[in-house]
Amino acid sequence: MKQQVLKVHPQDNVLVALTDLKAGQTVNYQGVDYVLVDDIDAKHKFYMTDMNAGDEVSMYGTLVGKVQFTVRAGSVMNTDNLKHAAAPYEFRPYHYSWQAPDVSKFEGRTFNGYHRSDGKVGTANYWLFIPTVFCENRNLDVIREALHNELGYAVTEKYKSYTHQLVEAFQNGVDISTLDAPLSFEGVRHNRPFKNIDGIKFLNHQGGCGGIRQDAAVLSKLLAAYADHPNVAGVTVLSLGCQNLQVQDFTKDLKERNPNFDKPLFIFEQQQSQSEENMIALAIKKTFEGLVEANKIERQPAPLSKMNVGVKCGGSDGFSGISANPAVGYCSDLLVGLGATVLLAEFPELCGAEQDLIDRTKDEAAAKKFISLMGAYSQAAENAGSGFHMNPSPGNIKDGLITDAIKSNGAAKKGGTSPVEDVLDYTEPSTKHGLNLVCTPGNDVEATTGKAASGATLILFTTGLGTPTGNPVCPVIKVSTNNALTKRMGDIIDINTGPVIEGEKTIEEMGEDILEYCIKAASGEVIPKSVLLNQDDFIPWKRGVSL
């Protein structure tokens, strides 16, 4: 029989509703009866005891808020009676002890990836177009339309066909309300001449000029990171010529990141070209030649230790920290136990979980770097009149994430329980196997953009409300927290952890299922929905205040 409520941690003083509960209903948990004062919707919490103003509320075994006025046991937790609070944190010498989970089921397993000359292994083989400045976005759009349509990478054919039907119906006086919209992926990924090229990707952005020079400098390092990404086979760069981000800045950052960079790199500068038409035609021709060579690269077996997996949550709900995030966290521990790399980012969504992460950080310098980055980020938000406490969105709150500390402690579960091997600032590459912390905003696209820059070749993205977010070079795997979302938005969901909520699977069983999917996705055996949709979201972080 499915449980009605759950206590996440023995020290907690709230219970989570796993199903809708009614005011006046008596709920029994571990031999104690609770009479509900309010309706408690699934995903929301209620207080286990009478509480007074100033009393601390604990969830995940840590402080997540303070009560604002007297509430009775059985009352719903909401934004009126609870405000964000998080425990202070400090550096403490490393004494953490960790036992890796049993990985015998996965030992000796491989995935079929694309091996690069620097020893890294990609999960995909993409050609990448980079503009050094927003002035070139239109030219990239023209090239995208030409190459995607002719080489079989476009996913809009069904919508073009549907639009054509609408035009014909309109011209013939037919009631267009009778024409159904296309509903399937049929026809996608057909007729591709380059069988070993998984896609042609375009990093349109709004930077490279204007703003401040530091913005251009950060963007340059970000673009260099994408050019050097293991999933990228070759790069075409379009430059205007007069912008802040000069081509030589980009190539300098690229060489600093990888002194032995040897992928095909074609650079075109519009102010030095004979005409726009000539530049675009030449860019297409040279890229086509590059694609011919890149297509010769084939997938080959690689040990699971070569995997680099980013973990992310977005459109989170009250089940995120109970089903999907802990399941992904167990998968993270399995990966670390196998010698792979895991990237946990979203610093505004680690608020309240800092001490646990600091205590798990092996290197003192790395721990202090994390403290410094978190402190500076938090202070910048407060200086702008905001703060980490303002991170939860209206959708988060509506579905049970009342304070940032609740959201953050649930979000941190994605990283598992292993020691922290390194702490990376934005765009810094991951060089150590194991769990790495990466400084990014919590914003879905800015965070996934940053994880890919640090080397993630797959991203596990949990969601309770549903989000289509993807990435141009790093396949994003969507993990649902509940059955209802999977049923409603199955076109974007890859894995469902709803069985955890229903009591049908354990966190450990679900974590193993997630790793099995990752191995298949890394081998090209399954294609995540975000990839099928060409959901290529890319937003550089200017290092301003973004939560």
Task: Summarize this entry quickly.
With 547 residues, the chain is of the alpha/beta class. Helices cover 31% and strands 18% of the residues. It starts with a strand and ends in a 15-residue tail after the last helix.
Architecture overview:
With 547 residues, the chain is of the alpha/beta class. 31% of the residues lie in helices and 18% in strands. The chain is built from 15 helices and 22 strands. The protein has helices at 137-151, 157-171, 213-227, 247-257, 276-294, 324-337, 354-359, 364-383, 394-398, 404-411, 444-453, 483-488, 498-501, 507-522, 529-532; strands at residues 5-6, 14-17, 26-29, 32-35, 45-47, 56-59, 62-67, 82-84, 110-115, 121-122, 126-131, 199-202, 232-239, 265-269, 300-303, 308-313, 341-344, 420-424, 434-438, 458-463, 476-480, 495-496. The strands form six sheets. The chain has a seven-stranded parallel beta sheet with strand order 18-19-17-16-20-21-22, with helices on both faces. Strands 12-11-13-14 form a four-stranded parallel beta sheet, with helices on both faces. β3 and β4 (32-35) form a beta hairpin. α1 packs across α5 (276-294), α3 crosses α4 and α6 packs across α14. The chain is globular and about 80 Å long. The two termini are 40 Å apart.
